[in-house]
Design a protein that fits this description.
The protein is α+β, with helices and mostly antiparallel strands. Helices cover 38% and strands 21% of the residues. It has 22 helices and 30 strands. The chain has a 7-stranded mixed beta sheet with strand order 9-10-3-2-1-8-11, with helices on one face. It has a 6-stranded antiparallel beta sheet with strand order 23-24-19-25-26-27. Helix 7 crosses helix 10, helix 10 packs across helix 15 (501-524) and helix 14 runs antiparallel to helix 15. The longest helix has 36 residues, at 330-365. The structure holds a DNA duplex.
Length: 787
Amino acid sequence: MFFWLLDINHEVVKDNVEIRLWGKDSSGCTVLVVTEGTPYFYILPKEEMDLENALRKIEAECGKHKEIVKTELVGKRYFGKSVKAVRVLCKTPEAVEKYSRLLSKTLPIGEHLEDDIRPATRYILENSVSPSGWYDVEASRVVRPGLHVDQIYRAVKPPTLVERLEAPNLRTLAFSILCMSEKGSPDPSRDPVLAITIAPHQGRIEQLVSDGRDDREILETFTSRIGELDPDVILGYGQNTFDWPYLIERAKRQKARLPVDRMGSEPHRSVYGHISVTGRANIDLADVSHDIPEVKLKTLGSVAEFLQVAKRVDIDRFQDAHAGELWRSLERRRPLLENQQRRAEASLKIGRILLDSMIQMSNVTGLPLDQVAAAAVGHRVDSYLMMQAYRLNELIPRRTEQPYTPYQGATVLEPKPGVHENVAVLDFTSMYPNLMIINNLSPDSYVGDESIPDGEVIVAPEVGYRFRREPPGFYRRVLEYLIAIRRDVKQRLEKADPNSVEYRVLREREKAIKVVTNACYGYAGWVGARWYVREVAESAAAFGRATLRRVLQMAESLGLAVIYADTDSVFVKYDRSKIERLLREVESETGMEIKIDKIYIRVLFTEAKKKYAGLLPNQTLDIVGLEAVRGDWPNAVRLVQEGILKLVLSNKNIEEAVEFLRTYVQKMRLGEVPLSDFIVWKTLIKPVEAYRVKTPHVEAAKTLLRDGWNLKVGDKVGFIIVKGSGRLHERARPYLMASIDQVDVEYYISSQVLPAAMRVLGMFGLKEDAVLGSADASSLSRYIGQD
DNA sequence: CGCAGGCGGGG
DNA sequence: GTGTACGCCTGCG
């Protein structure tokens, strides 16, 4: 039987672990394959220990406990060394937890390992069954009441991989709930669910509306409709943190149940804080939005607009406390309900667009579809490395609590301020992964204070850490493997028809592999990583600095003018033959690929690092780091600075830029700029009470909290600076509580718009008073093109 | 005036 | 819960 693996969980049935593989078969039927799981952990005796003796002791101790099935000595590797470990097989995961601890306490003979691997993960690793892929399994039909799938099988043998790229047709729906409160956030202990919208991919959109007091009926209808529609994928926006917990709490209050999964039980919280619906993939698109860095403000409307499925303003409405009042009158309720429908439809469309990439990320990293959406990059890499460790017969280290020590990172050069014409940006392809491969930077090749002949090690510059040249370390093997499979996917892409499904899948697969490859360096320096060794990350950074330094030397000796450099990129004055020579020489010396990334017709640098704007040959403007692209500056500032940059870079027209600024400032003073362009958004990175300083956004948040709002870590606070006296934070108002005539326009002009404008205009020798003074813009001096 | 806390975006 | 480097705001002594 062929099936595509959608979800995996385990149940303990009569002291045995049953692994449940939920999937779809090749005809689109839902299937469940049950099989046994074997829970176990390892004891790794200390090196000086006599193995026979250790094993005898362990066996003697294990013999006393009936939940331990057996022990066996197995050959494994641990941090690159061949070791013998004792595998302790248990009946249940609970026994694994209990005896791994007990044994290491009563028998202090070594480390206990892999007791932190959950049964479903263990099964994935052991049988190489990565989720979101096709498998062939020899299985017999069985009957199991109470499980909601078309067919149930018992596996006779472990599944084997089937090379088939295309995912099956997944039944998908999106849902959204509507709850309201007279003030602030709705509270499930008080406010009923007012409406639930279900938007199935196939079929009509449904809206279940309650009478506003008793939501029991719509909760029950929702549950039964999910059962009837039987989705493989459940989409939503924020349902892990809002909709599901709210529904669960409401159901509890109503003494109702929410058996929406495929085994008749309720949604529950799982590993990455997400809500798991067994047998289906519950995907919160708010989690997935973090994979789209281009979308700054993570609202459903912003994501919808970015993906061109809806206009932001049509989606992000009624998301504030005022909406509660709308529910009261019947005719004003209509737009509220219509908006909710649009939100569910937008979620559905967004999900359909993003599903391919999530499926590939799931299959590459080995995390089930619902988990991969919720897991952060570090956990995705963690999962990937665990699969690779299994492939290489390496024991999986546990996460350990350890202190965090910062280390020195990359080099950033002081830019040459001014406008430069024809500037090429050269950069290395995957610099950190390549440095890790070339220098064998890996936890297992890292040589601490052991004495080793100089010829056998590579020494990292500046930091002096040593790494064995041979054998290839874990990171090196994994990174080489990643690069090899990516190359293979790229080759297949070249042959594929760009309009085919195959092409689309391969493109997403290639992206997923790239993300994992590029995250390995950061992962190596993350204290939470299973394979965290700070010296590895620190050495990669040091090799990076040395490499960049060398490129700068070589550019200089070739007579190429360097304008700026950051980490793995160098900005040089365009000179085709010299650049080509530089690239060749750098490649042969470093063994890494470096190429021209882009050529700016004109690029403007201020004195600041990491801030510049460049004009590309197709007339588009690249703005990096400047206020115009930052989310914590009001629209007014972004708009003015971007406008000025466009004028000075594409037309070289400073007079027009000054005129543009003057006109905008005038509009501000005349009240012709809308309130929304004055809003400053800042994120709360900790609970409001935890702040020791009084800042505008924290004070605005306090005002909102006093008004009954529910603000949490990660929430964005939009505020306005209003007229009046006192410190800035005393004049910060939540934007919903301010009107246009209260705005301190002069503050915005002098402290926000002008500084941002002058950062650009100042580069042309203009002074603030000259710009806003009475002088005619056309009499301003021109400084363009000096370099 | 200088330093610290806070935040966001870059490579 | 990938890393470090950086700029620039406001608060505060």
